[in-house]
User: Fold these one by one.
Assistant:
Number 1:
Amino acid sequence: MTKIAIFGVGLIGGSIALCYKGKPGFTVAGHSPNPRSVEKLLHRDVVDIATTSMEEAVEGADYIFLCVPVGMLEDYVKQLVKLPLKPGCIITDVGSTKASITESAAALNIEGVHFIGGHPMAGSERHGVEAASSHLFENAFYVLTPAAGTPQAVVDRLAALLKSTKAQIVQVDAREHDDIVGAISHLPHIIAVALVNQVRGYNASNPLYQNLAAGGFRDITRIASSEPMIWRDILVNNREVLLRLIKDWNVEISRFIDLLEHSDGEGIAEQFRIAGEFRSQLPERRKGMITSLYDIYVDIPDHPGIIGQITTVLGNARINLSNIQIIESREDVPGVLRLSFRNQEDADRAGGLLKQEYAVHV
Ligand SMILES: NC(=O)c1ccc[n+]([C@@H]2O[C@H](COP(=O)([O-])OP(=O)(O)OC[C@H]3O[C@@H](n4cnc5c(N)ncnc54)[C@H](O)[C@@H]3O)[C@@H](O)[C@H]2O)c1
Ligand SMILES: O=C(O)C(=O)C[C@]1(C(=O)O)C=C[C@@H](O)C=C1
């Protein structure tokens, strides 16, 4: 029996719990210092054991997930390593910043157990166990930031466990993680909040602002509704990176001031063009959706009806396609079609059938 102990069974901790709860060979223990939360966890059937006792939660645990706010992670690691942990146990976290916890855990020189930082790149503006889902991590990247000296076999053991999340595991240096995630997650949260608060100010004297706010405003500001305490900790923890990124942001915004002052329509259009081109290349990994990592690639000649022919072949064989994307299609160049399936078997069957007429790559 593999025992997984989870501290902080909220959105992320609860979603981790649901990836293992009820799976043969796994027991999931959830910890909360609050007896009412413990009752809720049992009532919602998210964990097998729920307790306010740290000792009980970690007793015999093979893996410990710390899913509490970033500001509490170091303290939790310090408390945990004073407890009798199972030899070889792996402690990991899911915090949105990685440098400080990776470095402070390494500095503890823990013996007999291992710490490996982790961060699933999936989430939501919602919080609490009510928002948890076993599908949350499907197709998302899940970053691991092992400190130098962590045996690769131990990292591989954690990566193998995390397969149940259906996320794609990647190893990244912790500081590099904070630079990158600062730009693609933390800065966008700041911008969303600042924008909402700017409009909130105008709305105070004219409620039409709120009433007319439509798709564009909603799209860019969803994350402004994120949990304040979670984001307080993330932003304070990554402040050095963020201060640099906000300076760069000011440069980008100043560019628009300049373009507008000069009524430079072509310059503005160019900004949209280059942004749209980059954005269209973002990997399509919709979190929480049951899309798939089982992809095959098919070279397709550029002639009308070709995609219909391919999907008909798959439909006739009753193979479910979960996603389809044309990667390259220009008049003079044959296109490549990426077909995604929910499991390897479907991908193999599709590949076998399509190979009879098309060049297929896996
Ligand atoms: N929300 C996201 O999109 C997201 C994505 C990836 C990683 N993370 C990280 O996951 C972690 C948890 O965030 P979440 O979104 O699940 O938030 P959440 O609020 O849903 O869950 C936080 C959990 O920590 C517990 N907690 C809070 N304060 C506590 C305290 N003082 N003592 C003990 N327990 C306490 C809460 O009861 C709750 O169970 C954070 O470190 C966050 O940075 C969040
Ligand atoms: O989709 C959202 O709502 C999120 O905020 C998820 C998101 C992100 O910014 O992409 C937020 C924090 C994380 O640490 C990882 C993912």
Number 2:
Amino acid sequence: MKTVLSIKGLTKDFGRLRAVNQLNLEVQQGQVFGMLGPNGSGKTTTLGMLMGVINPTGGEFTWFGEPPTHTLRKKIGAVLEHPIFYPYLSGQKNLELNAMIKECPTDNIAKVLDLVELSGRKDDKYKTYSLGMKQRLAIASALLNEPTVLILDEPTNGLDPMGIAEIRELTKKIAASGKTIILASHLLDEVQKVCTHFAVLKKGNLIHTGPVDDVGRGSETVEVQADVANLSELLLDFSGTASINRENGYFQVTLRDDFHGKDLNRFLFDKGVVASHLVTKKKSLEKMFLEILSEH
Ligand SMILES: Nc1ncnc2c1ncn2[C@@H]1O[C@H](COP(=O)(O)OP(=O)(O)OP(=O)(O)O)[C@@H](O)[C@H]1O
């Protein structure tokens, strides 16, 4: 897999405040990489440095294996904050202006408008757009020069549930077209639903990074019930059991690393016991996130 972004020791001080501290990260091609962290954790500052609008105090990073240059940055589209669109111009005209500023051909406008589902409203004035439509137009503008990487900073901020769902679907659609996406968010739910990989930042420090699918790995809990008197003994006999407790009439079995519900099911079956109820529960990202933050 190709490394799109490699960050080493990236640091930013604002006077006495260290906003980003010795950040090391890698983003691979095709990932939807979430930067997750509470407000003030350094996400925007990091993205600003990656886009060349904030000067790092220390450290370095490469895009596509090369130190950042103006030409390289053209391969990266970013929606960092609300871009300046003219309220009395249409979506179409605004994109034409943006294309001119970015020195890219206007041929892509129809395509990006179609992608963000604004073709039907392209001739309406920007000021008549909903917040969700404005955000979609900003994404369309970032895609004008066909970047290979798209950076989104808090893309669903301020949107209603419908707008959030639309941006989420759009992000997935853009990722499916082969682009790498880096998305900063303070919303666990957003990262869990959209991202393939993520990093957690706290007060400028990286405190966790890995695949979203791995969250809660090795910490599966299985809710189980079977019509036998010695079920608790059997569950404790199972080598994958870390602990058990009883809740709502079921046994909750927390499994050791690398053991899964199906292993427990097979163990019970081999003992001649058929479970009447067996449900595997993964630790939610929220629980994991809160644990990660409290550990540090
Ligand atoms: N230009 C600046 N001057 C001084 N301090 C700054 C500046 N920009 C950011 N900071 C501080 O750096 C820290 C990190 O801010 P940053 O905006 O990067 O965090 P964030 O994770 O993106 O949070 P948010 O989602 O609230 O924007 C904060 O304490 C913030 O107050």
Number 3:
Amino acid sequence: MSLFKLFGKKHDSDRQHDAKLSHSAEGSTTVKDLAKSKIAPSGEYFENLDDNSRKSTGQYENKGTRFQKIQPVDDEDTDDDEVQEDKVSGLIILLTLTASISGFMFGYDTGYISSALVSIGGDLGKTLSYGEEEYITAATSLGALIASILSGVLGDYFGRRPILMLSNILFVIGAIVQCAAHSVWMMISGRLVMGFGVGIGSLLAPVFISELAPRKYRGRLVIINCFGTTGGQLVAYAIGAGLSRIKNGWRAAVGISMFPPLLQFLAFLFFLPDTPRFLVMKGRISQAHGILMKIYPDATEEQVNSSIKELQELNRALPGGNVLQRLWYGAKLLHTSGPAFRALFITCGMQALQQFTGFNSLMYFSATIFKAVGFKDSTAVSIIVAATNFIFTVVAFFIIDKVGRRRLMLASLYGMLAFLVLNSVAFHFLDITFHGSDAIVNSSDSHTWGIVIIIAMIGYVASYAVGCGNVPWQQGEMFPQAVRALGSSYATATNWTGSLVISATFLTMLQNISPTGTFALFAGLTLLSIIFILLFFPELSGMSLEESQKVLTGGFHIRESMKIAKMRKKYGNKVPLSVMEKPESGVEDMA
Ligand SMILES: O[C@H]1[C@H](O)[C@@H](O)[C@H](O)[C@@H](O)[C@H]1O
């Protein structure tokens, strides 16, 4: 993959490759889009287009960067023959809620540890050293990192459903080991096994949901999984605080975590199927057909068949007779195809920025910070962080598909930047120094600055949760079907790497570069994140998973994607993607 390819300057061979992977990104589907333009309401949505786009709309088919005259297409070849994905059936909701139990486990297991560490005391045979506390905390992130690398492949081979069921078993084993732990290493082992479950769930639950969701509601349905995560963290904080004064209360908090995975396991086992996309990938067409009919009860037989045909064509993009060959081709395509590599670049970047802008430093250590600042019941105060995170995830749910991912990310990052700067300034005036596990406040007006810090943190968390905490988890929609699970696993592994790094270095940073320096560093990284979004993150709201691929073909198409999103908001899905194409000079001569 050359840099040229990433940024859209491509050789002919690259173009063929891209087109192959993204399924007629520059071929028949574009023709379909153009055909659709003929059945759209009397040209009203072309009003806003510039002349070049007008030329490309309805008259030309884009072949790479050249335009050729196209043949008219029968109306019956339009997407109207495919399932109309604009309704959410009961089964989709049930599947989404069931998959979101994985999100809940992700949140609960990363959330309960902060209170558990405070209340474990000597229960593991000794008083925990600072380093042992770090090992126990980090074991889950490490397990999640390892599992997120493997579970993409496993999910493609065995299916999303069985691997999610495997994660349930790991959650339960991990919890049992921790509940029974009487040594530090046993606790670490339990956390590691539980981390495997967290990693699988964090990767496959969003993939599962985005493969089922109707495009119009995909953003929202994936956020339901994020509700699970932030809700799980809130519940874990609350239970942890409630049980913290009870002897061995932390074991009860861990024990409670066994019930949601049991529920998910049973729901999958007895009632719920795998995604039609996966089944088609495996050639189980009649099963996929049956499930599509159930998911879209209003669809006709022909529409379902047509959707299956489209999914089959998408799969043909990935050659190979057995799983290993397909895996090899998948990995190769992920790195050598323009749209797939761009998707990889964007999704990994988004997950990195989600973590490196510092949010989890608050999630894991807010109690420590509030204690240092002088709050008496710091565990209770730190519930504010988890509660704000949850509440603003709910806000994101209501606005994501309306506002759009890109605008939401930018608004989120601007807010985070402002509040991080405020935090940094407030810490400067509070004049606090960390030594070992002690903090010394030097300011005479610590009360005022303490309040400012709380306000800045709430503002920061709210800004984070409304975009940055959720949008990166929409990663599945960026990848072509053939490499969706694999690509998502790279991005998820990036997330866990970031989480590991931040949790392992935050306290050290507070000591070595002071809180002011630490939050200023996060602010600097947030600024870089804004630049990243401005340059590389197109608006994919309202686009089908296949259309997202077209947007990433030949470049990032930032401005064009925004134009389409705006027009689709106004005129609906009939607005063809082809309005995005711009003929290069000399195209006029070809007409
Ligand atoms: O999206 C989630 C969510 O924002 C959680 O609160 C956070 O702890 C995770 O790291 C993140 O991936």
